[in-house]
Structure formats: C-alpha cells, structure tokens
Amino acid sequence: MGSEPRPEREQAATPDATRRLVDERTAYDRDYDRIVFSSEFRCLHDKTQVFPLSTSDYTRTRLTHSIEASCVGRSLGQQAGLGLREQGVDLEPARMGTIVAAACLAHDIGNPPFGHSGEAAIQHWVEQRLAPPGTGSSSPFRTEAEWKDLRDFEGNAQGFRILNRLQSRERRGGLRYTAATLGAMSKYPRPSVLPGSREPAKGIVSEKKFGYFQDDRELAELAWRELGLREREPGVFCRHPLAFLVEAADDICYAVIDLEDSAKLGLLPMQQACELLESLLPDTPRSRPSRHLETRMAQARAMAIGELIPACVSAFLEHAAALEAGTLETSLKSLRPQVKKKLGAITDLTRRYGYESERVLQIESAGFKTLGGLLEMFACAVVAEAPNREEKKLRQLMPLECFQRPEFAAADEEAPPERDEAIRRLSPYQRLLCVTDYISGLSDSRAVELFQRLSGIKLPT
C-alpha cells in the first residue's frame, strides 16, 4: 500500500557515514518536511476554513485545519498499519502513518482564497466569460476538457499541480514527492471530462470531483500507474487505499472541529454542540462532564475524535482487500451507518448556524466579486495577443515565474526570456492556468487588498 519511488526520480549522491548517522528520514519523512517548508503551505494561515477573514484568534484557518487533519491522519495510518501487520502484511506502521500525515498536510494546499466559495467564484467567471470550443464563439480552448478544467475549477487538481509543477518549476515533477504520498492525497484520480463525456457515476466516490488538469495529465498518470492503481478507463483510476484514510481524517476534522468553531464564535449554543459531540461516544459509564462549557467542549471534541479514529480504522481493515483491488468505492464513514448519521447531524447543524450565517455569506459574496474582478483583469491581459497599455502593466504585476515551464528550463538558463515572449510560447489554455495559479495562490487578505488597489478603491501608501 506504499511505494518509495518518485515519479521523477532524482539522482542523489551516496551519503557518507556522518550523513547516515544524522539523517535517518525516510522518503515519506522528506515529503512531509517539503510540504511544511513550502510557501504554499504557509499561505494557508490566511485562507478560509469556515469563517473568512475572522478577527478571532481562536478560529481555525486552512493551515490549522490541515495540521489537525494531519495529526488525525497519522493516528489512522499507524493504527491501520498495525492492524494490517497483524493480518500478516509486511509493512512498517510508522511509515504508513507518515504517508497519511503528509497527504493530509497537503490535501487543501490547492484551495483558492475564500475556500469553496473561491472555487465557485472562479467557476462562475469562466462560465460567464469564456466560451467552450465548438460553439461558434471565439474560445481560448482547444478541447472540452481544457474548458471544463477551468469551468469546474477544482482545488484538488490545483493541489496536485502545486506539488508537481509550481514548486521547483524549472524541473519536471516539481519537488518530486513519492508516488505513495501523491496517491494518498489524490481522492479523485480522474480528469475533468470522463471518457465519452459521460456523467460521473453515482456511488463511486472517486468520481465525485476531478483530480488533475489536462496540463498535468502525463505526470498524474505516470504516478498512479507506478503505484499500480487500477485504471478503470483511460486516465480514470481507482483510489489508492490510503486516500480513504486521508478522506476520513478530513471528514472527522471537518465535522467535529467546525462545530467547535461555530460554538466558540457564539453562532450556536455551546450546550447543544457538546451534546452532539457526546452522542458520538459509547453508552458506557464515564466521568461527569465539566460544568464549564468550554472545558466540556474540549473534552467532548477529544473523546469524539478518539472514538471516530478506531471506527474508521476497523472499516478500513474489514475492507482492506477490496480497497487494495480498487473494487470498493465508498467512504469509510459510509461503511459505518451510525457514524455517518451522527456526523451528518453535526454537519447539518454547523451548516445552518455557521456556514450559512449572515457574516459568512456577506464575506463570501464579497469574495465572489474579488476573485471575479481579479480574473477579469489578469486573464484578459494574459490572453491578449496584442496587449494594450493597461494589460501590459497587469502582466508585469504577475511574477515572471508564473510563466516558467520545465520544457524551456535549459534554454531559459542561457537566455532568460522577456515576459511577453514567455507568455507568447504558451497556449491560451496554459496562460489561463497561469492566472488561476497566481490568483488561487493568494491569501484571503492579499486577494482583497490586490483587488482594492487595482480597482482604485484603495491606493498604495
């Protein structure tokens, strides 16, 4: 269920004796460290988890959510590894825990500003402003898949792109994470358009969304074939078994932690939130809950997570053979109907009082206009074959590295291209991806500030 090779293997020098003594990290430890030290991961500190631009020091961001999911993921991976070893599978549980932890760290790294609302803003702008190919209107896309990559813009696909293209852009494969880590973080290993343009099949969890853009298809298929994932149709793969554990870690934190944040912000009664979390616990005698509601909430959250982890691990172990064969296509929580029902009740309450609260909806609406406005400016400037004066200035605001590609790296070292030349050698579809790379990489606050400045609402001081 794990694989050491990297899709683009690097030729490392043989370490000397001293190096071997001080660096006993596995390839998976290196993956974990590379994610932690990446600028894209740090940017998550100012990206929405549930509550955009929160002024509370307590409220979680995408960064803290990812760290917490990684902790839960490590426990899931290690416990599942111990269970598999007891079943006679030759593996190291600690390594399995590290793979899942690293994948959890990276699972939201591709999210644009304002979270899922930001994804919707990009999708809406593309649908309104860019025509699909073959409709009689001028289109920047050559294929339906290129258009749907952006019309259905997906943070999961952007995350794969960040790890494999946008970090260390000058070389193919980016930072070259192990195939196992890439497989574990890829919950949806399929393109935006399924073979025959068919609709995603109901009940197949890996087809719910898509996991790579056409621009990154070659590397995605290389990684997943190297892992031995079953290819149901050309370019459409079954999940890596560890992706189910990553999904479970996200589901646990998404439900339990978002409920806690909503209660802490006063959007729903703390008493009700505590009771919902305590409903996840077994009906066995336990110590009397604290009278202090915040302490009770912390205790309930910890105990709820402590119950959910073994429930998901047991589901994983029961169905390990089917997961390995790629014949099971449902989430681990769905294999435990009572767990799914209780988590659903928690999520419904959080949605009603948290996700759909007036302040959240107001800021998400503003985020829609912010991202749509930035796309209007930068996309038009980058796609233009003969940019006007304003468009030239907008091009200059985008870092030159946005337009770097590994196939041009050798030539660029000898003669770095001018910005317009770097843009000219890209297809219109690739140029638009450069724009979504840039905009989705902004933090919430930076996106708002940039839009205000470029719109003349707020000028630099």
UniProtKB/TrEMBL annotation:
Q: Taking every annotated instance into account, which residue ranges of this chain make up the domain HD?
A: 62-255
**PANTHER family for this protein:** DEOXYGUANOSINETRIPHOSPHATE TRIPHOSPHOHYDROLASE, DEOXYNUCLEOSIDE TRIPHOSPHATE TRIPHOSPHOHYDROLASE
One short Pfam family name for this protein? HD
Q: Please provide, alphabetically and separated by semicolons, the GO molecular function terms listed in this UniProt record.
A: dGTPase activity
Q: What is this protein called?
A: DNTP triphosphohydrolase
Keywords attached to this entry: Hydrolase
Coiled-coil region: none
Question: Do the record's keywords include Hydrolase?
Answer: yes
State the SUPFAM superfamilies in the record: HD-domain/PDEase-like
